[in-house]
Amino acid sequence: MLIENVSDFDADGWRWPHFTPRELACHCGGRFCAGEYWHAPDFLDALEALRADAGQPLIVNSGHRCAIWNSYVGGARFSLHRAMAVDISLAWHDRHMLLAAAEQHGFTGLGLAKTFLHLDRRPRPARWFYPGSETSWRT
Ligand SMILES: [Zn+2]
């Protein structure tokens, strides 16, 4: 569900203690939108479950993106960041453990970058590397 301005979002009953609507909203900083946010409870349930497994903070580099911000940062035209997807920083995490846990918790779009893990929930599972990221995932 698209919220045009995250400040207008009624967060009463928010049940995902490790995340806030603001950190999952567009990070363009008001340049191209008023703070778009996409509310998806199922996605948040999976993210919170992953956070519990990881046992440490999941830093969201990128969550929802407004249209202009998405193209500005080089996102795919039909990127799930236009609805809800997250890029989680890999700092402080064992990347392989985080990947396995993400898969276990129902994330089906798995983008393996050098410094972050992209997660989304799509009907047909997909897993990919970003240019130059493959070696960082070899152990
Ligand atoms: Zn924006």
UniProtKB/TrEMBL annotation:
- Show the Gene3D superfamilies listed in the entry: 3.30.1380.10
Q: Please name the taxonomic classification of the source.
A: Bacteria, Pseudomonadati, Pseudomonadota, Alphaproteobacteria, Hyphomonadales
One family from Pfam that matches here is: Peptidase_M15_3
Q: Where is the Peptidase M15A C-terminal domain?
A: 17-120
Q: Which top-level group of life is the source organism from? A: Bacteria
| Official protein name in the record | Peptidase M15A C-terminal domain-containing protein
